[in-house]
Amino acid sequence: MAEAHASLRFDPSFAVGDVNPHLFGSFVEHLGRCVYTGLYEPGHPTADEDGLRTDVLALIRELGVTLVRYPGGNFVSGYRWEDGVGPVSERPRRTDMAWHSIETNEFGLGEFARFVAKVGAEPMMAVNLGTRGVQEACDLLEYSNLTGGTALSELRRAHGAKDPYQIKLWCLGNEMDGPWQIGYKTAEEYGRLAAQTARAMRLLDPSVRLVACGSSGSGIPTFAEWERVVLKHAYDSVDYISCHAYYEEHDGDVGTFLASAVDMERYIQAVVATCDHVGAVVRSQKRIDISFDEWNVWYMNRPANPWPSDWVVAPRLLEDVYTVTDAVVVGSLLITLLQHCDRVTAACLAQLVNVIGPIMTEPGGPAWRQTTFYPFAQASRFGRGSVLRTLVDGPTYETSKFGDVPVVHATAVSNEDGGVTVFAVNRDTENPVRLSLDGPMRTVVSHSVLRDDDRHAVNTLDNPDRVKPSAGDGVTLPPLSWNTIRLTA
Ligand code: AHR
């Protein structure tokens, strides 16, 4: 059989838009072992003075995370932020109903602020609009962002943080449409609450940027109508609407799974259309952006760990072990986020450590990179600049869910140093594709490939480097692979 061939056409003069660094965000929820024994483990041989694991901090820096969403997730809808500030010995132990766990509150806002500073990321804070409302959101903002001279800003200072945390990005609740969410609401109820909370928060600190909850997924029956109604109330008060999407391979249908980005693309297009429709109805010049603040591969129907029967601290939950196939899908989802960088201006890989994370840890033991670590790290490192308009010409294949889908999924980013980086995925599980690059930049500086002969290969505690990038030949996209090709003029 003749080798398959695809071409990618681009021209640095034609750009989709500039990549906002917030596109390479991640997510830390009080869930399972993401915080406790994940990034925070006093007593671990590598722990620093704040109880943070320096081995994990180093991996997070290598991953290139720019933004960290916190503290949930489902967790936030039952959370009292006051529990997590002040002397640790006086903090209450609580039940976390969202994840049926004990929350010790050893790690809270101050610890989180020190953590993000150490990894060089920006914080993105979620307020509880499930069991709480406008007042508690404003209290948290006052505690976090006011310099001093008021009860809560002085309380922060008394807790040892002289300077305000200056948190700019805020999520107005989490997945408020979902019946699993404590205090879930109708679109009318949530739209009014989001608008009221946003207006009050802006009175306190006009510099904040606010995210309204969109649907918790595009498959939920109220999808798109939820966005329309919420924005009808909140259009003028918020800056972003959120999107959440998780993908997994169902019944061995790898072709559909590898095409998950088609679903993500349709989702983004539908939300953009809905935002712009409401913008036209309310006669606004303003544009609402998308904060894709939860996305990943997640084997929801194949739980990695059972639901805890007892109330325990930091149970092993959602500890998915990712294959090389999963990493290729994650890469493809990153390509889609980049291709929509004109409207998707923030995004968070959910989550960061242990819980459906690119980094895994063992309590008292080592930390290692999952397969999904690599596409994210490379996209964050080389996906800076302007995303170019591209035309991919090549073979297609039939999927059960999305019809005909291109075998090669690719994008090109014009980097700040004058080079161009091409990210490309080969969705063919058996055959390589020869990729010709049709643009003014032709000299390949480097080609990194993530692949494996076994599409189920994973990295584990015992074999942490089974799957890692290797050098490619600059033209061949091996079967089922993620590729980063760097070019100069
Ligand atoms: O990321 C895991 C969970 O997925 C989050 O807590 C929730 O927001 C979503 O449903």
Please outline the helices and strands:
Elements: E1 4-18, E2 25-27, H1 54-63, E3 67-70, E4 94-96, E5 101-103, H2 109-119, E6 122-127, H3 134-145, H4 151-158, E7 169-172, H5 187-204, E8 209-212, H6 225-234, E9 240-247, H7 254-258, H8 260-281, E10 289-297, H9 324-339, E11 344-350, E12 359-361, E13 367-369, H10 373-382, E14 385-393, E15 396-399, E16 403-406, E17 408-415, E18 420-426, E19 433-438, E20 443-450, E21 470-471, E22 476-477, E23 481-488
Parallel strand pairs: 1-19, 2-3, 2-11, 3-6, 6-7, 7-8, 8-9, 9-10, 10-11
Antiparallel strand pairs: 1-14, 4-5, 12-13, 14-17, 15-16, 17-18, 18-23, 19-22, 20-21, 20-23
Helix pairs in contact: 3-4, 3-5, 5-6, 6-8, 8-9, 9-10
The protein binds alpha-L-arabinofuranose (AHR).
Question: Rg, please?
Answer: 22 Å
Into how many domains do the coordinates divide?
A: 2
Give the uncertain stretches in residue-range form.
none
Order of adjacent strands in the largest pleated sheet = 21-20-23-18-17-14-1-19-22
CATH topology of the largest domain: TIM Barrel
Number of strands: 23
Question: What fraction strand?
Answer: 25-35%
Query: Mind describing the biggest β-sheet?
Result: 9 strands, mixed
